[in-house]
Amino acid sequence: MEQSVKGQVAIVTGAGQGIGRAIALRLSQDGMNVVLVDLQGDAVARVADEIRANGGEAIALSLNILHAEDRQRMIESALSTFHRLDALVNNAGVQRIALPLDVNEEHWDHIMDVNAKATYFCCQMALRHMIEQKNNGRIVNIASIAGKMASTTYHPIYNVSKAAVLAMTKTLALYAARYGVRVNAVCPGMIETSMQDMVDHEIGRITGQAPAEIHVERNARIPLGYMGDGADVAAIVSFLVGPDSHYMTGQALNADGGVLTY
Ligand SMILES: NC(=O)c1ccc[n+]([C@@H]2O[C@H](COP(=O)([O-])OP(=O)(O)OC[C@H]3O[C@@H](n4cnc5c(N)ncnc54)[C@H](O)[C@@H]3O)[C@@H](O)[C@H]2O)c1
After folding, report:
1. I need a labelling partner for 77 at 20 to 30 A (CA). Which of 13, 98, 110, 154 fits?
2. How far is the CA of 91 from the centre of ligand 1 (A)?
3. Which residue of 69, 111, 195 sits with most ligand 1 atoms within 8 Å of its CB, as the best mutation to test the pocket?
4. Which residues sit opposite 244 in a β-bridge?
5. Cβ(91) to ligand 1 under 6 A?
6. Per-residue pLDDT of the chain (262 residues; tens, 9 = 90+)
7. Which domains are assigned to the chain?
8. Residue 90 Cα, ligand 1 centroid: separation in angstroms?
């Protein structure tokens, strides 16, 4: 049976800002020791300082999940600092706006490399350790409702990459279940972060609309009527990492104000 997460260790990628920062703060509030990873060293160091100021334990690593040696360092740092690894939250992701006929191969490679390939190999590296340690490991992948539906045609490759995250979540969940390791996903909808600000700005460049106008149109498509924030996603991650979800694996839970009902 899974235990309380207090004193357990979680890695959170892309923890320097936005949803990843909120997940790191939440898992620390839950009592976990957290390893924070981001390309932006200064940002992730500030989040670690914030956690320590609140009485939690955190280390910050400035690294790029695209690089195998950096992914190795991520796992080794968790083990050398906290001597165990219980959970991995694959949150780091990138977004780019272009209509389907304007996408080029460089665009495809960049989005797929970070969102799909690096996420897969982070899972693989953590799984090897979790299977060996027999410690009921948990992996939570931050996908998107864009992986379940064509939420817009302005980011076709992002949609493809998030569908890949859902496919790997289901496949790895089936594989890892026999070892007591659970793999689930969260599908955020429209969440207030700088990634979403960039999306509004870039779509506005194509449509000629002001970002504020796009924002209003988007809110009108959300049944609950407003965008979520990082803490809304973090609460679901907390549940999937924690023991109350012990009978769930291979799932993809939406945090989207009711946009999707499947
Ligand atoms: N904001 C939304 O509305 C929304 C909706 C659905 C899904 N998501 C997903 O949630 C996750 C977080 O999104 P966000 O809005 O907080 O984005 P964000 O851009 O605010 O933050 C992403 C973080 O990931 C880091 N990162 C990017 N590439 C990296 C790499 N190669 N190595 C290490 N770190 C890297 C960035 O430096 C940044 O700190 C992403 O996977 C995103 O696709 C966001």
Report:
1. 110
2. 6
3. 195
4. none
5. yes
6. 788 999 999 999 999 999 999 999 999 999 999 999 999 999 999 999 999 999 999 999 999 999 999 999 999 999 999 999 999 999 999 999 999 999 999 999 999 999 999 999 999 999 999 999 988 999 999 999 999 999 899 999 999 999 999 999 999 999 999 999 999 999 999 999 999 999 999 999 999 999 899 989 989 999 999 999 999 999 999 999 999 999 999 999 999 999 999 9
7. 9-191+229-255 (3.40.50.720)
8. 10
Q: Looking at ligand 1, which atom is closest to the CA of residue 40?
A: 37
Whether 154 is catalytic is: no
DSSP letter (8 states) at residue 26 = H
d(CA 240, CA 249): 9
**Is the CB of residue 195 below 6 angstroms from any atom belonging to ligand 1?**
yes
Distances from the Cα of 176 to the Cα of 81, 82, 131, 155, 244, angstroms: 26, 23, 8, 31, 19
141 pocket-lining for ligand 1 (C-beta < 6 Å): no
Six-digit token string for 15:
């923890």
Q: Distance (Å, rounded) from C-alpha 253 to C-alpha 19? A: 15
